[in-house]
Amino acid sequence: MSKNTEVTRLALKKLGVVLTDRGSKYAVSGACVRSREDVDAVLTTLKAERSYAKATHNTWAAMLPTGVLKADDGESGAGMVILRMMEREGLSDHVIIVTRWYGGKKLGGDRFRRVQDAVRAYIEAL
User: Fold this and answer.
1) Taking a C-beta distance cutoff of 8 angstroms, is the pair 31, 9 a contact?
2) R_g of the chain computed on alpha carbons
3) Long-range contact list for 64-72, CB < 8 A, 24+ apart?
4) What's 96's DSSP letter?
5) Are the CB atoms for 119 and 28 separated by under 8 Å?
6) What is the rounded distance in angstroms from the CA atom of residue 57 to the CA atom of residue 112?
7) Which of 94, 61, 95 is nearest to 78 (CA)?
8) Contact 64, 96 (CB under 8 A)
9) Are 86 and 64 in contact (CB under 8 A)?
């Protein structure tokens, strides 16, 4: 399958920046996926855009037919936050990626609320 066909099939949905907090910006993206290879293709497509490749964190979670996957990308615990929200919504065969560009101020526990807000915006947009 060619790369263009793969991207079309996976239909990456980017909402862009959905919120800011103390200078940090949060964006959310996602796609329907069926395998780890699909997840990797979505991440590659997203990071092909320079701003996403240079982001501080691209945390994600996926619910696949073979099980669940998640990655914090340096934002400890964020992947689990995304995964729990997906499980509550029953959103399977999907990957959700929350991107953060660090704004210079630590958010402490608020960073998890911002991840939740971003995931909620994505789910509402579906």
Assistant:
1) no
2) 14
3) 64/33, 64/34, 64/35, 64/36, 64/39, 64/92, 64/93, 65/34, 65/92, 65/93, 66/35, 66/36, 69/36, 69/39
4) E
5) yes
6) 13
7) 61
8) no
9) no
Q: What is the end-to-end Cα distance of the chain in Å, rounded?
A: 26
- How long, in residues, is the chain? 126
How many other C-beta atoms can be found within 10 angstroms of the C-beta atom of residue 84?
14
Using one digit for the tens of pLDDT, what is the confidence trace for 5-37?
Answer: 454 457 899 999 999 999 999 999 999 999 999
Q: How far apart are CA 29 and CA 42, in angstroms?
A: 9
Query: Rounded to an integer, what distance in angstroms lies between the CA atom of residue 40 and that of residue 84?
Result: 21
Q: Distance between CA 13 and CA 21 in Å, rounded? A: 23
At 53-67, the pLDDT tens digits run 999 999 999 999 999
Tokens of 47: 């990071």
